[in-house]
Amino acid sequence: MLAGMLLAFTRSTMSEENPNSSIRGRVLFGGKVPKAKLIDESGRNRDLIEIDPKTSGLRFAAVFLLDAPKSETPTKTEELRIDQKDFTFVPRIVTVRAGQAVKFTNSDSANHNVRGASLLPKNEFNVYTGTRGESIQRFVADPKNRPIRLGCDIHAWMTGWVFVFEHPFHAVTDSEGRFE
Length: 180
Fold this sequence. Notes:
Blueprint: E1 4-7, E2 25-26, E3 37-38, E4 45-46, E5 50-51, E6 58-59, E7 62-65, E8 80-85, E9 88-90, E10 93-97, E11 101-106, E12 112-117, E13 125-130, E14 135-139, E15 148-151, E16 159-165, E17 170-172, E18 178-179
Parallel strand pairs: 1-7, 8-11, 10-16
Antiparallel strand pairs: 2-18, 3-4, 5-6, 7-17, 8-9, 11-14, 12-13, 12-15, 15-16
């Protein structure tokens, strides 16, 4: 399931005048929590969404600004890691800057691949991550037509998402629904 939240702020709240701008908040889930579904041949149940029972915080929600001001902040040079572990993408939702490296690692004993599906050809890829311990690195090029859907052709239930941005005002919520 793709969970996302859009926030709209005026340019006056974040501008070149205040280069240390930040946004923080919390995403809360309202309503009945759906039951986990059996979605893989190993017999494991997978939660469609993760909600903290104490706070109702929604984990793995992508939070970002639309039409954020241009940022001179350089793209992070450290690579972001997504692991294929227990037949899932961990984490299953990430946000990155355009041009930032994403490293895909296979921690399972089974073979996997990572297919990135996008409306933009330069954001599409299909790489074999082999067996346990093997890794492959990709650079995500363009923030248009986000998100990029991740999948494993060998294990169809494996799904993840990559949201790409030209600005630094994006995050994924933690286990209690918080972001900054």
